[in-house]
Amino acid sequence: MPIKTLLITPPFTQLNTTYPASPYLKGFLKQHGYEVFQADLSIEVMNAIFSQNGFAALFEQFPANHVQLSQNSRHILSNAEYYLQSVDLVMNFLKHRDTTLATRICSDNFLPMASRFDQLPDLQWSFGSVGVYDRARFLATLYIEDIGDLIKDGITPYFGFSRYAEKLGISAHSFAPINEALQQPSNIIETWMLELLKKHIEEQRPDVVGLTIPFPGNLYAALKCGQFIRQNYPQIKVIAGGGYVNTELREFSEPAVFEYLDFITLDDGERPLLNILEFLEGKRDVKELTRTFITTGNDVRYVNSEKEGFVSQNEIGCPDYSDLALGNYISLIDLANPMHRLWNDGRWNKLTIAHGCYWHKCSFCDTSLEYINRFDSTAAGVLADRIEGVITQTGQTGFHFVDEAAPPAALKALALELLRRKISISWWANIRFENAFTENLSRLLAESGCIAVTGGLETAADRLLKLMNKGVTVGQAARVCRNFNRAGIMVHAYLMYGFPTQTAQETVDSLEIVRQLFDQELIQSAFWHRFTATIHSEVGQNPEKYKCRIIDPPKGRFAKNDLQHEDPTGCDHQAFTQGLNKAVYNFMHGIGTDYSVADWFAFKVPRVAVKNNHIKRAIK
């Protein structure tokens, strides 16, 4: 009999939709005749917590006097009865099962309220007189976040709604702190996770368990699952891979990791996973594994047979969403912004148009890694087939294309194919602000169902964009945003500050550019990222070219990615963090675009050098 595989997404990822790794891999392995079951422990644990039984068990964890807890936590516990009465109703509402509850949630006497409700925006202004449903979801989101604060305060500081024990996974050069944490008794959250894992193992009786580790906030939970399997089901082989592994563990040599895992794979998981299953079936030798770490006693060995290459995008198959309880995901609204809400609102089906980035030249990006530099596009017909297949499986017509940068030509071909087949969907994707996105192409994309795009404007300063080899100018990006805007497509801009040599003047001017983009309604949302050098980027590998110095290069046998750097010719980047974030937060609420840039900072900043009509002139 073929090997049976159980694919697991460990806590925590998005609450509104499935992380795509397990559906992608299940669809691929089924093509090769394997029996595969998948489970999303992330949403399953969240549903265990946010239930009447879950709340009752949580509240029992706290001593009667609560003296060590914050005032906010004590307030929540004093209202435990109201939380127990309301939690199942709120969760059903957030799952779209009981929309009639919206009006009661919006009243002042239904939800128990703690500190998250202390600074409510003007709900009438944010949602209007008829936006009762969205207003209710916003309030229900605050209710959920209040309990999250209680868990962090009194159960475990590891808790987060899209991450768990993230600090243990970030820049973890040594495995020792993680290993030590894994030896501690399980808290109630971890106990629920392991009980759910046990249930799936007992029901499916797999030979192999595959764990995806996309982010630092999944590492600890994945290893906790591996530990449980090793202790209770030693006959099961455990495989791990995913985005965190691909970026952080390419050079790891710590054998202690294999106390929890049997195989660790790099880059796209299709070929390595298929080869491991064939190895376990006796169909191939260990030396024929692909991009896989194994242990040989006290040593770590990397095996990468060049016998077979990567599986092409046209051959990976249609994602398979079977087994997943799609009705258990919850839609949250943490910001009254129509673009920003897409990340947390709605159960988006995820697909990839093209693997990698067709540009792959930005010096801040991990361009030396396969997930960026190996470009492989999917044929429009194949992609449309997958879209139809996923709609049939899920009943959902919303799609998020999770490309590093979706190519304009591929998007055009897909749009034409969707229109030809009369496939009606809503979709959004990440793009580069290329001149190829003309007004005509933007209108075509909108006609095919495009509702939004996200793209990197980074420092919004032409000197720095040229230095980082972005291949985009501010004026070019503004014109592309105008084209999308005229087509009715929303735009989110990824912003960056702290790039080597960036001055205070450039930082202030970049905020002025962003202010003008919001003021002209060319972008609807944005987010500032602080620049970090990585060992896989051009900056990390050639810091002298960017007039910066790498200090304390990572030593250790586990994770290696982020680098500490000094920027002797740049400004004090950290000083600008609060002001930049505060400004964009207000811009996303439609507030403050008439303020002077200097108003957002608590210290004196250079006078803006950019003309106040710079963007308006650029888009004429």
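^ that was protein a. below is b, sequence first then the tokens
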Amino acid sequence: MMKYIKKSGLVLGMLALLFSSCKKQLEIDPRQSIAADGALSSREAVEAVITSVYARLKNARQYGRDMITHPEALADNGFATNKSGRLLPEANNNFGAHFTGTIWSNSYAAINQINLTLEALQTLTLSPAITTVERDRWEGQLYFLRALYLFDLARVYSYVPGAVVSAQDKGGVPIILRGISSVDSALTFRPGRAPQDDVYAQVVADFTTAQGKLLSSASVNLANKQAAQALLARVNLYRKNYGEAKRWADSCIALAGSKMTTTSNYVNQWRVDTHGETLFQVRFATNGENIGVNESLQTSFSTLTAPGNTAVTGGFGDLVPSISLLNELGIALVGGNTTANFALNASVSTRNTDVRNLLYEPGTTGRGPAKVECTKFLGKNGSINLDNIPVVRISEIYLTRAEAMSTPGSSVLNEAAAIADLKLLKVRRYTDYTGSAAETADGALTGTALLDEIIRQRRIELAFEGHRFFDLKRLGRDIVKGPHYNTVAFTDIRILPAIPQGDVDGNTNLKQNAGY
């Protein structure tokens, strides 16, 4: 039993929550605002525990870094420069180099906090009495966050419905909907892996409940109605329920209004605190939350401290755009986009008219040969290594709707409407698109050619935002990583990471992923 306790990330996460919550509550601290029996004592305590659940998203193994960097490194968007050694194993797709077990333990600890709080709210009485608005705001955030943590667990550790390697499939992830409120119950808890369809159904149920309780006027720093609807569109796209993906995308777009940036303000939106297209973000408010020079997104993606300033070296620029992505972005290097030239100091020869490529520029030579780097995360308002991280933007939802309407066999197949969404995006990204030959050609796209162009635009639009690996995975596609690395087939066991072995060793109901 003690061996299991020491090795189980899931149990340790629950025990840590329980032990920390037994401290006296003279101060309202997010880590100790809920007692071991699930009791809450004040409005401040409720707000504090919800704040602590948001705070877990900032972990470097979650949206602080890995949920953004790893989908680029594991897929075909990123090249590891080896300037610090970080992300090199992931870019090489080395066996075992993947998402770490911390996302497992941290996510299930968050889910346990959520479950305990939801249960406590059922019997909580305060003076003055809790209003319906208050209860909906608290519960809406908790359901939203539980859905997000469970969705991320599912897309990291399991296959996606409709894109499964049957011979290697071990199911989804455990669905935990009750709070573990004692040491004894934590030590005897043995959840198994639910089927993928059940996991995604639970994610949809929680996001649906959340959007029914949340307000559209809530800050993008918090769970809100349009963000819940946006993520419902994404989750349903993943599970190939295209009718529901379109329905929720329609609702989100109608609710969010005109948030799509234009060619004239596209770059600037990545230079301010909050991107104008953001529907929900993980907020890093103060320098005390700064992840630092080793693992922040700024240092992971760039050596620059400010746009164009190659005189001062800041981070490491561990992961830069691959030749494949440079080609899609319309960036040509002096000397050509060849592997030999890519190894030298990078200098841009030409760019096409896509304003998105303006966020990719040569870094410094302070840590080795300069590379063209992604500058989406360059420190908000000049605060080095401190950025708010968009989890979902409105442009993704237009692309989600377009994909739902262009996928062959979709119940909502409508190529004309899909082309309209595609054009709506492109006119806001290419300075010469309106009236061009490209616009005419897009109007004639049909079948797989239309779908492929929508997915290509999704790759460009969401590059270095943590989507590419998951998109290839949900589509069941091989990861073609040439010319830098070898192709990783969709059937390769490296597509899935290991579940923390300590949890598997102590739980006969929990099956390890194939090959580990």
